[in-house]
Design goal:
The complex is a heterodimer. Chain A is 72% helix and 0% strand. The model of chain A has no long low-confidence stretch (mean pLDDT 83). By secondary structure, chain A is mainly α. Chain A has 9 helices and no strands. The longest helix of chain B is centred in the middle third of the chain and has 32 residues. By secondary structure, chain B is an all-alpha fold. Chain B has one domain. The chains are: A mainly alpha, B mainly alpha.
Chain lengths: 208, 481
């Protein structure tokens, strides 16, 4: 083994261990916010492993979308909803057998996969080590913006339609709602809000 | 620069969507009357330019563009022009009604344009991915449009049903398409037949499996039985301008989808899919025409009649012959013209204070609105297939294609169902002309451009019926290429 492989091996074991531990913590910690934060750690380590495997675009996307958007949203929901932790744990015993069955099926599938692999099943070849210069992001970009430009633009229109439809279905202009109007706030002038008056001293004897 | 002229219709319509959204964003700063003019005007302009740029295509423009994403051929030229013109008419007929009922904001126009864009993408799609994206663009726009009147419970119900069933159908279609891709390794509709033809035995079974999924999804999008459940609810639940839209342009998209995906793409499997399409067609004929007999709501009646007509169109496809395919395209274009007229008249009557929901609302119409009753009579006679109206030639061409294949019994069944259909169309005419009601109030509204164009649409049914050959030749040229 040359030194580069040693480093790669080391990175894999470090991040893999953290990944497994944090994944385990996601389901064992008591507080849902902590669980969500462990999930962030989980995703982060997965991203590193993916980058290690040569799928750097997937790794970046995982951090940008799952950590950056989805989990932040999840955290907000958890904080806003004030989830009752005790209630969530009530059904543990009841659902444990079902969970065990699912886990068993998953383990059997994994075992079967490895077993099939040793039999010479090459449908799932190990990822080949590609050149360091190979660039997933560039390749995807070329595909999307050059070869598949037309479908890509159509997909963009679909997103726009989703936006219009959501606004159409939910936006209501109700009178009397206290809401900010950013354009008015930006355009405001000092003289609109502040009135300079020269205070006159009260006439003696008029007050009180 | 060839690819610029090839994508021009889609580009105009997409530009229209963006421009309408921009105009709508100006609403706080511009007077409402300015927008009420500018938004429909830019919509009409975008659709008109799309139709124009497609009609300028000549034999020199034929080809495949955008790395096999977009095809320009006579079929796409015929259908792009028809779709744009029909969308143009839909807007013209609906403007007044939308303004009166407060749906005249930019959303309607933006979504109408995006639905049209979806259909244009299907019509000119040369690649399975583009077809699917076109279907989704069309469907998502329609779901939103159906629920545009969100205060009405019945509209919300229709939209929910449409959305859920449509989502399932899209999933089924996607599954079928992914199987096709997995088996053939190509997304291109030009390559697909070659890949299928080169395969034997076991993979053919899987191909058949994929084809069945595709046919189920196509039948759903076309509104053919037994996947027709959404049609009556959507027709009844949507506001009439939306029904006019849902009942017309998507039919053109559906026939384009069938021509591109089934007839061209899965051609080597035609011996296998023909019986499936035939089954769906016969079931649609039976369900559409027999269930229409029991309807008292006029829009539901037209919905079931739509299912029956889809049955006729699919019969043409099920023959698997060129003449049957020409007949199917011909029938679809004529059917859309007739539907435009029927719903257009409902909108004109609404503007004159007569909101037709039930059949009984049509009673005594001939006394107050003789002209509109006459045009409705044209539409009904034409839908029933009575000469000299053009609907007769549409039915005849399908029957001729069936007899050419020796399918006598199917042809006999189709004729029987056409006679059953004639019964309920004639019942509408009878209610308009012979049923009397007391206290009728006439409301005279001056004619505008929509009324004029609608009248021309009605007269076109007779003119096309007297000179049926020109449109037939056009369809034949488009399909034969």
């Amino acid at each position: 083994m040359n030194p580069a492989d040693w480093i790669e091996e080391g990175v894999f074991w470090v991040f893999g261990t953290i990944l497994v531990v944090s994944a385990f913590r996601v389901i064992t910690v008591r507080h849902p916010v902590h669980a969500a934060l462990f999930l962030v750690l989980c995703f982060f380590n997965t991203a590193v492993l993916w980058i290690l495997a040569g799928a750097e675009f997937l790794g970046i996307i995982l951090i940008l979308i799952y950590v950056g958007a989805v989990l932040v949203l999840l955290l907000f929901v958890v904080m806003m909803l004030d989830v009752e932790v005790e209630k969530l744990r009530e059904g543990f015993v009841r659902y444990a057998p079902l969970g065990a069955v699912v886990a068993l099926i998953l383990i059997l599938e994994l075992v079967y996969l490895f077993w099939a692999h040793t039999l010479g099943f090459h449908g799932l070849a190990a990822p080949i080590h590609v050149l360091a210069r190979h660039d997933n992001t560039r390749a995807l970009g070329t595909e999307l913006y050059r070869r598949d430009l037309y479908p890509f633009e159509l997909a963009g229109m679909i997103l726009l339609v989703g936006l219009i439809a959501a606004i159409l279905l939910t936006l209501r202009h109700r009178a009397g709602i206290q809401s900010q109007k950013p354009s008015e706030q930006v355009r405001v002038r000092a003289r609109d809000r502040v009135r300079l008056v020269s205070p006159k001293p009260p006439r003696r004897g008029a007050s009180t | 620069m060839m690819s610029m002229s090839a994508i021009a219709p889609e580009a105009w319509v997409a530009g229209g969507v963006l421009f309408v959204v921009l105009l709508e964003a100006l609403r706080p700063f511009v007077r409402d009357r300015t927008l009420a003019f500018a938004i429909p005007a830019s919509t009409l302009l975008a659709l008109g330019l799309a139709a124009m740029s497609a009609s300028f295509w000549t034999a020199a423009s034929w080809g495949v563009f955008f790395d096999g994403g977009l095809i320009v051929d006579p079929l796409s030229r015929l259908l792009v022009v028809s779709v744009s013109v029909v969308a143009l008419l839909v807007v013209i007929y609906s403007i007044g009604d939308l303004e009166r009922h407060g749906f005249g904001h930019g959303e309607y126009y933006a979504l109408l344009l995006s639905a049209t864009l979806g259909i244009l993408a299907i019509v000119t799609g040369a690649n399975v991915l583009v077809l699917f994206l076109g279907i989704e663009l069309l469907s998502l726009s329609l779901y939103a449009l159906v629920s545009i009147d969100r205060e009405r419970v019945i509209a919300a119900e229709a939209a929910m049903k449409y959305f859920f069933l449509g989502a399932i159908a899209s999933g089924i279609l996607l599954y079928g398409l992914s199987l096709l891709y997995g088996l053939s390794g190509t997304l291109s509709l030009a390559m697909l037949p070659k890949m299928i033809a080169g395969l034997g035995g076991g993979d053919r079974v899987l191909f058949l499996f994929a084809t069945a999924f595709v046919i189920v999804a196509l039948a759903f999008k076309f509104g053919a039985a037994p996947f027709h459940m959404w049609v009556p609810d959507v027709y009844e639940g949507s506001p009439t301008p939306i029904t006019l839209l849902v009942g017309t342009i998507p039919e053109l998209g559906a026939i384009a989808l069938i021509m591109r995906l089934l007839v061209a793409g899965l051609h080597p499997l035609s011996a296998q899919w023909m019986p499936m399409v035939l089954g769906v067609a016969i079931l649609s004929l039976l369900v559409g025409n027999l269930a229409a007999l029991a309807q008292s709501n006029f829009k539901r009646l037209l919905a079931y009649s739509a299912i029956g007509h889809v049955g006729f169109i699919l019969l043409g496809i099920a023959t698997g012959t060129i003449s049957g395919e020409i007949a199917a395209v011909y029938y679809t274009i004529i059917y859309v013209t007739m539907t435009l007229l029927a719903f257009g008249i409902l909108l004109v009557l609404r503007a004159r204070g007569r909101d037709v929901e039930d059949l009984d609302d049509l009673a005594g119409l001939s006394q107050i609105h003789p002209w509109w009753s006459l045009l409705m009579l044209f539409a009904m006679f034409s839908l029933a297939g009575i000469p000299p109206f053009v609907g007769f030639w549409a039915k005849l061409s399908i029957l001729r294609a069936l007899l050419g294949q020796g399918e006598v019994w199917v042809a006999v069944l189709a004729v029987i169902m056409a006679v059953v259909g004639a019964f309920y169309y004639l019942r509408v005419v009878k209610i308009m002309y012979f049923d009397r009601v007391a206290n009728q109030k006439a409301m005279s509204v001056p004619w505008g451009i929509p009324e004029l164009i609608l009248s021309m649409n009605g007269l076109a049914l007779i003119v096309l019926g007297l000179v049926p050959d020109a449109l037939w030749q056009l369809c034949a040229w488009a399909v034969r290429y």
